[in-house]
Amino acid sequence: MNRRTVRWDWAYVGFTGLLVVGTAVVAAKVVVAVPHVDWWWVAAFLVLSVVADLNPVVDLGFGGEQVEVTVSLALTFSVACIWSPLAAMSIVAAQTVFSDLVTRKDIEKIAFNAFLYVIVIGGTSLVYHLVGDPATPYLGPANLKALMLAAGYYVVSDYLLLSGLFAVLSHRPFGRVFVGFFRDSWLNIAALLPLGMAVTGLFRLNPVTVLFLLPTFFLLYVSLKREQTLRSQTQTILEKLVDVLESKSPETAQHSKRVRAWVEDMCDELGMESSDADMVLQAAVLHDLGKVGLDDGLLRKPGINAEEFHHIMEHPGVSAALLEGLTLFQGGRDIVLHHHERYDGKGYPDHLVGEKIPLGARIIAVADSFDAMVSMRPYRAKSLTVMEALKTLDDERGAQFDPDLAVTFTKLVRARLEAGDMKNFPSSVRVDSTEEVSVAEGVQA
Length: 445
Prior knowledge:
Blueprint: H1 3-29, H2 39-53, E1 58-62, E2 65-69, H3 72-82, H4 85-102, H5 107-131, H6 141-170, H7 174-205, H8 214-248, H9 250-270, H10 274-286, H11 296-300, H12 306-312, H13 315-322, H14 330-337, H15 359-374, H16 386-395, H17 403-419, E3 428-432, E4 435-438, H18 439-442
Antiparallel strand pairs: 1-2, 3-4
Helix pairs in contact: 1-5, 1-6, 2-3, 2-4, 3-4, 3-5, 3-7, 4-5, 5-6, 6-7, 8-9, 9-10, 9-15, 9-17, 10-14, 13-14, 14-15, 15-16
């Protein structure tokens, strides 16, 4: 992490610290009526929450950072509803700091996590106790309204503060980060918040009955962990498929790696959310997987007839078929299937038109075609120069290629040329008709 990033990191931690002070001041001034709770229940909730924190079930990635989702979310929400705001803030602060110290997080992460939960839980507790009425039934109109408003505050405040941090660190638009977090985690939140409401209701009825929910917590943990395991297994399978591609056709594998590098530049330039970008990047590596089943002689043949070309055109479908059983990679499968579609609808296999073609497929189409043009291929005497390839991209804007993506890609290529950075290009590439640039010579130290 560079010094500038660290400075912004601490600035944001300081901002959340100010919010903590404001939340604490408001909580101290507001008088709420809460039933007395014996101290051992505080200890019990702390122990259970720490155990849950030390066993995360879902890791949400954004850039180089990770956000852990644990079943303690249900417990912290119930803490906000059971105890007074100041007491709830103290409990979650102690829980968070202890958990982070055990897992040896950096000091700025410990501070931010503690501040985050104090703000979220303190505000949730204030909303619940100010709107609710402890003298009426738990699911009566007033308390039901309090639960809904408290849950809304919990989710919104948590997302806002986390999105703000990652927007600052990644220099990406706040709105994109917020939407990405919500899309990736809403299902986990939807499962855990109602459980927190159930804990609150049972505790209000008889604290001991909360213990009956421990099996539910365990089963939910196992279920969410299994989903995470499935995601990891999917990633492992995809990596194995890449290994197969490299062993069967090293040339195709190198082409795919260069395409992936250009696609990564495109995703960054477009500000694509991390989960979407990861899927597109994986699809870029695997887009020619179906060529593994083709005869090597056919791929290296200088001239091919119509029947042989038709056979080669089947490789996107073969690639997609190989990825068919990977439920969590169906978006990537569709990208692989359609990377040879044309913007004007004259591509294959389904003749999709314009934005009906998946965005990832449109991105790969530009990068794939460019690399093919500037690389040596058996079916032509020599490769095109970079400038000739860029002119072809411009000529085919709105026909073969998405016009906006062709412009974006051209800017990225020119920027790399100006910087002398040739790592995304084939081993020997001609920039124009008189100049040949070796990658080893062109890459800046």
